[in-house]
Amino acid sequence: MEETIMSDCTLCPRNCASNREAGVKGFCGESKDIRIARAALHFWEEPVISGQKGSGAVFFTGCNLKCIFCQNTSVASNKVGAVVSKERLADIFMELEKQGAVNINLVTASHYAPQVADVIRLAKQKGLQLPIVYNTSSYERAESLRLLEGLVDVYLPDMKYMDSGMAERYSNAEDYPQIAKEAIAEMFRQVGEPVFDESGNLMKRGMIVRHLVMPGAVKNAKQVIDYLLDTYGDAIYISLMNQYTPMKDFEKYPELNRRVTRREYERVISYALDKGIKNAFIQEGETAKESFIPEFNLTGV
User: Fold this and answer.
1) What is the DSSP string of 95-113?
2) For 279-290, how does the pLDDT look when each residue is reduced to its tens digit (9 = 90+)?
3) Element (H, E) at 269
C-alpha cells in the first residue's frame, strides 16, 4: 500500500503526484525516505502535553504547507534532516520513553503518514506504552488521516486561517480553511472528547486546536474562535498563542515584520472569554522569543 501511495503521491491537498517511491521529491520536498531533524524531550508545548518531564518530540523534515513565516524554517525548507529506517525510528520512540517522555510527539509528519503508521505499530510491538501525539498544520487530507486511526491518541492541529486571502498570501493555500475544517473533523471523529490521566495533568486522549495570532490579524483570530466554539464547544481545547516571531526581514510582507502587540492579543483573549470559552490555553508575558525554537542539529537521531 505504501509503495502505491508513494509512487503517485496525493497524500496531501497539494496532489503533486510525485513518484516519491522512485526518489522524486514532492511539494513537501521529500522522497519516501523518512528524514528527521531532532528527537528530544520538549518542554514548550501546552502543559497537558509537555507535563513536568517533557514531550518526546520528533521533528520530521519537510512540510506540505511551507508558510512564509515558518518558525521552524530550517526543517520545513528541507535543509536539516537525516534519513532513518522505520526500525530506527521505532527505537527512537523507545529511547524517548526511557528518557522519561510523557508521550511521543510527531511534529509535521503528514507527508510520511503511511510510514509513520507502520512505525507506531512496530514501536507498540516493542512495548511502547506512551500516548502518540500528532502535531500538524491541518493541511491534511481526511483520507490520509484515516491511515492513523487507532494509532494516534492526541491530535494537536493548527487552525491557522479562516481568511482564505491570508491563506493564499502567506501559505499559497487558498483552500486552507475548508481543508483544515475537514481535517480537524476527521481528527475529532477519531479521538473524541478529552481524557486525562489520574492526576488530571496530562492529556491521554483528545484534541487541542492551536491558533497562532498574527500581527494585524485579530479579525482572523476571532473567526477561528467562532468556528471552533460553534462547531465543537467544550469537546476540544483551544490554544491561543502570541509567540509569533519574525524569522527574517519580509520585504514583500512588511506587515509581518513585527510581533503581535499586547493589545492585539488581549483583544483576542477578551473575545474568546466573551464568547464563553472554557477549555483554553493562553500565553502570559513575553513568549515571542527565538529561544522557544529548538536547535535542529540531529539530536537524538
Assistant:
1) HHHHTT-SSEEEES-GGGH
2) 999 998 665 454
3) helix 262-274
